[in-house]
Amino acid sequence: MAGQFSGKVAVVTGAASGMGRASALAFAREGAKVIVADVVVAGGEETVRMVTAAGGDALFVKTDVSKAAEVKALIDKAVATYGRLDYAHNNAGIEGTVAPTADYTEEEWQRVLNVNLTGVWLCIKYEILQMRTQGGGAIVNTASIAGLTGFENFPAYTAAKHGVVGLTKAAALEYAKAGIRINAVCPGAVRTPMNERLIGGDPKVAAQMDAMQPLGRRGTSEEIAEVVVWLCSRAASFVTGLPMAVDGGMLSGMKAGE
Ligand code: NAD
User: Fold this and answer.
1) Which atom of ligand 1 is nearest to 64's Cα?
2) Which residue's CA is the closest to the ligand 1 atom numbered 33?
3) Residue ranges covered by each domain of the chain
4) pTM above 0.90?
5) Given this structure, which CATH class describes domain 9-256?
6) Is the dihedral of CA 166, 171, 174, 176 positive or negative?
């Protein structure tokens, strides 16, 4: 498809669902060829079908982002298929068990850190190794507002997402002169399968969550995808190392009377 990313190649992890799927579709709409990465095969293949149906070009590569060999194979496959790698949206993530810090098991702590933090680091590592050979690129990591403020009963998630923000800043400094911009998007409450799991499919809880938002509603995956595309675009050429809240105003402060 013709567009601002025509001739470019993008990798999106966690692209079988939610924000990753929306991001894959948005990159394709802008003309990029897209590598859809996820552990879930059916959802990943469905995203590819959606991209193709919209006139784009995409490929699914089953990838567990917490496994170095699989991440390396993902980037190798992207380059072998499409010849280059220009953009990456490191978005795969899990919410983990909802429990306070002292009730967390070591196993669950490690599982959440492995996917949400080590997974992002592994992706950045192999993406940078390729982008360096091409003279540049742009990477967006999905953190969360839980990467900017505490999130009760999500200790591993909060720690991992703060880690993603820190890693984004450090890596952005290291590779700025190599022409690689690295930013993070920090979504607030967004209506995705993950969000649905957290509210347990309860319309009352959903309504409460909407009412808590300054804009009076949760965000959509497409609203996050637009920011990811913008951060990768030439329009954001002076933006790097930024953890950007896309949260409908949630982190702006408390409303009077609360
Ligand atoms: P989602 O559950 O719909 O999508 C997450 C995707 O990641 C799934 O397709 C899942 O299969 C994939 N995934 C999980 N573990 C993986 C692994 N090891 N390797 C590869 N893929 C893996 O959730 P979403 O809401 O679209 O979440 C996307 C990102 O946004 C996550 O990093 C999440 O933490 C973050 N986030 C979500 C919200 C929200 O309100 N939904 C808010 C802030 C941040």
Assistant:
1) 19
2) 93
3) 9-256
4) yes
5) alpha beta
6) negative
